[in-house]
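User: Just a sanity check before I run the rest of the batch. Below are the structure tokens for the first item. I only need the designed sequence back.
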């Protein structure tokens, strides 16, 4: 008998192609798992940034991982019903981002204002005395900040 928890634990293996420490489950792009009585598994995913071209790759990776574990009756569905935002990154995911030296996005109250975009916690020294240098880092999903305490540039997973 398959359970949702079991499927989610298998999907922990699927990592964000750009951030190999972050699973799609922790990223919050797996929005739902449904299992019918005859063990057909449906995984619902929501795309993250329009600027992150990895969604097709992630979808195939989810399919491959299910098949690797003997789950051949599956549907992986991309759905825009529940739009992704960076608040959906789990606490475990935020911790992994920090270990990857990528500042996690601040949690916010569904209103993205300039304060939120400028706010970052330095992954090196945990200082919040930081300055936004450019809202676009090496990829559209990342911003560059400068830490005024340890005098280092660091990347942040942008709030969205
Ligand atoms: Zn610092």
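Assistant: Here's the designed sequence for the first item:
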């Amino acid at each position: 008998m398959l359970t949702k928890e079991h499927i989610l634990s298998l999907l922990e293996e699927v990592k964000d192609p750009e951030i190999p420490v972050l699973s799609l489950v922790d990223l919050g792009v797996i929005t739902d798992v449904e299992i019918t009585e005859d063990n057909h598994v449906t995984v619902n995913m929501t795309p993250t940034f329009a600027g992150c071209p990895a969604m097709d790759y992630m979808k195939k990776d989810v399919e491959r991982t299910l098949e690797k574990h003997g789950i051949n009756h599956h549907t992986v569905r991309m759905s825009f019903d529940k739009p992704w935002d960076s608040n959906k990154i789990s606490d475990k995911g935020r911790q992994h981002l920090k270990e990857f030296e990528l500042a996690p996005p601040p949690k916010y109250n569904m209103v993205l204002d300039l304060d939120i975009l400028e706010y970052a916690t330095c992954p090196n020294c945990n200082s919040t005395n930081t300055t936004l240098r450019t809202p676009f880092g090496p990829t559209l999903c990342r911003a560059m900040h400068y830490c005024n305490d340890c005098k280092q540039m660091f990347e942040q997973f942008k709030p969205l």
